[in-house]
Amino acid sequence: NAGVMQNPRHLVRRRGQEARLRCSPMKGHSHVYWYRQLPEEGLKFMVYLQKENIIDESGMPKERFSAEFPKEGPSILRIQQVVRGDSAAYFCASSPLGSVRGYTFGSGTRLTVV
Amino acid sequence: QKEVEQNSGPLSVPEGAIASLNCTYSDRGSQSFFWYRQYSGKSPELIMFIYSNGDKEDGRFTAQLNKASQYVSLLIRDSQPSDSATYLCAARSLSGGYQKVTFGTGTKLQVIP
Questions:
Q1: Does residue A85 sit in helix, strand or coil?
Q2: Cis check: omega of the bond before A25, within 30 degrees of 0
Q3: How does pLDDT run across B48-62, given as a tens digit for each residue?
Q4: What is the pLDDT of residues A47-73, one digit of tens each?
Q5: Would the CB atoms of B49 and A102 count as touching at under 8 Å?
Q6: Which of A43, A57, A94, A112 to mutate to test the interface with B (most CBs of B within 10 A)?
């Protein structure tokens, strides 16, 4: 029973390029959450998705960032025209419907913008 | 703004001592609370959750919840150097019709051999 799978583990992009981060939730989990963690800072909520629906994107920057969770395939966090300030660890977490337990996190994607 | 507050530390304790990590939350509607451990460069790992007032014990870990004071704590008995990590407190509450988890910024624990 694989856990939450994120790829790539490390991603280097030049300023102005696009970054695509992927997350496959645990089997049986229908809810996906994306968090960003800047160096030496806490986890900041970005977006909550269910299959084909964005439930809460209140933590997403208004420009350049988008997320999707299609009917088939992984959830994708997309960052267009990356800037140095986007360098961070991006964690995906999943949970089953109606769970009262905490989330299960993936291993994260470390994005470095050069 | 629903917040979870933690002292960033570092909290230094000698090996074998009890480490006490504290957390307060602002949303009285919060229903359940979590402690995650995060080693440097790794992802958060759930170690305890609690939703009833009082204590909950699991091995060397005890979570304590006081809803009247909006206070959550984590005690680590017989601290080991391998416990050195950042501990994140989180609270789950109802927001916009669904359950949302808010994290604190974490407390860095150093266990000195």
A1: helix
A2: no
A3: 999 999 999 999 999
A4: 999 989 999 999 999 999 999 999 999
A5: yes
A6: A43
